[in-house]
Amino acid sequence: LKRRGRVGRGLRPRGVMAQVVKGSDGARRLAPAGLVFAAAGLLLFGYVVWQAGVEKIWAELQKLGWGFAAVLALSGLRFVVRSYAWTLCFEAPHRLRLRDALRAFLTGDAVGNVIPLGLVVSEPTKVLLVRDRVSVVAAMSAITVENIFYSLSVILFILSGAAAMLLSFPLTRALRWTSVSIIAGAGAVFAIGFYVVRTEWRI
């Protein structure tokens, strides 16, 4: 028995090393594809800049001044906050690190912006990119909950904007009824979403 135990202990490191080597080989296979997509993205970005006109873009940036840096910072902060919110939506024992969530979130958002299908593609992409960290079911449930909370926050902004326009500006009859309809519709959707979150519906 002692001999078998020693042999078993001796074989374990080899199994671990085999898994490490296997993972390294997978990373090497993915590297060329990543380079191809990165090059395609740079080419697409260069084409867009060329079509818009470098001088025109530079002139608009000069008008914004340092405000452009603030816009970029806020845009990047949005992704960080949403990625962190995603990590908070996991139930124990499942956990996802912020850097893994941010990597998947940025990639999924980029895919959703490039492909016309939008959310239909971006959200499953985020889930698939973290499947080696957490289970697909846990990741899908967490991203769904995060999207519900994000949608509720968007609805609150819509309600606030419509109410501010209704109370602060003289509106025509058509615009007034449109604002009232927006407030009523957004309020109903917010109430349903709040009820779903409050009652903790299982997804």
Order of helices and strands: HHHHHHH
Distance separating the two termini: 49 Å
What is the assembly state of the chains in this entry? single chain
* Approximate shape: flat
Overall structural class, as computed from helix and strand content, comes to mainly alpha
Our Rg estimate from Cα atoms comes to 24 Å
Number of helices: 7
In round numbers, the mean pLDDT is 79
* Poorly predicted ranges: 1-28
Q: How would a crystallographer describe the biggest sheet? A: none
Proportion of beta-strand residues = under 5%
Number of strands: 0
What percent of the residues sit in helical stretches (DSSP H or I)? over 70%
Q: Can you describe this structure in just a few lines?
A:
The protein is mainly alpha-helical. It is built from 7 helices and no strands.
Note the main attributes of this structure.
203 residues, mainly alpha, 7 helices
Give an account of the 3D structure:
The protein is mainly alpha-helical. It is 84% helix and 0% strand. The protein contains seven helices and no strands. It has helices at residues 2-52, 54-64, 67-88, 98-114, 119-129, 136-168, 173-198. Helix 3 packs across helix 4, helix 5 (119-129) packs across helix 6 (136-168) and helix 6 packs antiparallel against helix 7 (173-198). The radius of gyration is 24 Å and the shape is flat. The termini are far apart.
